[in-house]
Amino acid sequence: MKIAFISDIHGSAHWCEKAFEAMDSWGADVIAVMGDVMYHGPRNPLPDGYNPMRVAEILNEHSGKIIAVRGNCDSEVDQMQITYPMMEDSARMICDGRTFFLTHGHIFSPENHPSLPEGSVLVFGHIHTMVAEKRNGMVYFNPSSISLPKEEKHTWGRYENGVLEIVDDSGNILKSLKL
């Protein structure tokens, strides 16, 4: 199974379109959205191509593949525009016998997460930086922000056959971690 991970879109139709084109081209079976979808937040500048309604359209076109969690900038009014559930703080999925715990990162994080089986993957967003590391029997993975990264690259993540990767908007693999 091919799982794509995207986080912190913050209403950027420009970066959302680029990411979904890349994820579709790669052949993602599942698209995990780690929150902060439509609103840019009071601390963030307006991202390129700020158009929350277009972001909602792009996401709704892919709703059959999406599993999503709520970010700190997401609200109930956002759910009114989205056709898939997005208001839970976390979700779990099992792939290749491994637990993937999905969260935004403002409630659960590498420093504060529920008890998970050893070797589980904690996938989160929120900090707008890339993380791909094994530590204390866990795997921590953050694809960064597609629209407002703290690093220079606009990125999304992917998993296939036991390998996690962070990929930039040009398709370059920036980080890779074999599980």
Relevant terms:
179 residues, Purple Acid Phosphatase, chain A, domain 2, six-stranded mixed sheet, 3 helices
Task: Walk me through this protein's architecture.
There is one protein chain. This protein has 179 residues and is α/β, with parallel strands linked by helices. 16% of the residues lie in helices and 31% in strands. It has one domain (3-178): 4-Layer Sandwich (Purple Acid Phosphatase, chain A, domain 2), CATH 3.60.21. It contains three helices and eleven strands. Helix 2 (52-61) links the parallel strand 2 (30-33) and strand 3 (66-68). Helix 1 packs parallel to helix 2 (52-61). The two termini are 15 Å apart. The mean pLDDT is 95.
Task: Give the N-terminus to C-terminus distance in angstroms.
Answer: 15 Å
Based on secondary structure, the structural category is alpha/beta
CATH superfamily: Metallo-dependent phosphatases
Side by side, the strands of the main sheet go: 3-2-1-9-10-11
> Any low-confidence stretches, pLDDT <50, length ≥5?
none
Strand content: 25-35%
Discrete helix count: 3
Q: Can you identify the CATH class?
A: Alpha Beta
Task: Please name the CATH topology.
Answer: Purple Acid Phosphatase, chain A, domain 2
Q: Determine the fraction of residues in helical runs and give it as a percent range.
A: 10-25%
Shape: globular
Label the CATH architecture.
4-Layer Sandwich
The average pLDDT score comes to 95
Give a short account of the largest sheet.
6 strands, mixed
CA gyration radius, whole angstroms: 15 Å
Report the count of strand segments: 11
Q: Could you give the order of the helices and strands?
A: EHEHEHEEEEEEEE
Number of domains: 1
